[in-house]
Design brief:
heterodimer; A: alpha+beta; Heat Shock Protein 90; five-stranded antiparallel β-sheet; 29% strand; globular; B: alpha/beta; Transcription Regulator spoIIAA; five-stranded mixed β-sheet; 4 helices; 41% helix; 31% strand
Amino acid sequence: MAGRTLTIQAFLDQIQKIRDLVSLAASDAGFKDDENYAVQLAVSEACENIILHGYGQENEAPIEVAVQTAPGEIQITLWDQAPPFNPAKGPKQPDWPPDDPPIGGLGLIIIHRVMDDIQYSREGDHNQLSMRKRSTAFRT
Amino acid sequence: MEIVVKEYKRVSVMTVTGRIDSATSSEFEEQLNSLTESGRVNIVLDLSAVEFISSAGLRVLVTTRKAVKSAGGDLILAKPSSQVVETLEIAGLDVLFEKFPNREEAVAYF
């Protein structure tokens, strides 16, 4: 698997750097434009959750990302030093009436609809979130 | 992100360019609020040049739509980019917003 890593500070305008990294990796892995975009969206939502719900606000604390790819497959791992928060549990209300969508929780819904596998673990004082997606074009 | 608003007699057309994400959604929300608070509740959003929209942007769309609908107006989309359509579909919110293939047809809706 080919790998890329990046560390940003927990500012919302820094998330674009991670999206760019993921976009490059997904492109290398052979993801089509719509799947590439979906993965960027999911990782962006995960980073936003880390900053706004994990750390509670923008600050200089780190978010580290490692992206590994193989043909048709991408795995993204995020580490942060926020209090324990487990996005792998999934949204509490995945379904809702069309005219009354939830205002909160949309980010989690997006992450779980886009990614095939989501694993969370607490490693010492770090949260570790691993998300994996396989391109539909490579599925047998 | 850049926002341009053009006022017509019965409709306001807001054109957004760039990214609507957690770093920019508050400005997007402020611009929409300034329209609705001045009584402009028929809104066409031209999102043809939006290259990325996250849940932060969707939240603004949903809350604004709710506000204008309760005031007798509507919020509709003109030429949403493929990225906007994809985010709406993933979130399951695509059924919520009327979409028109161009700005003229969207304006004529009102």
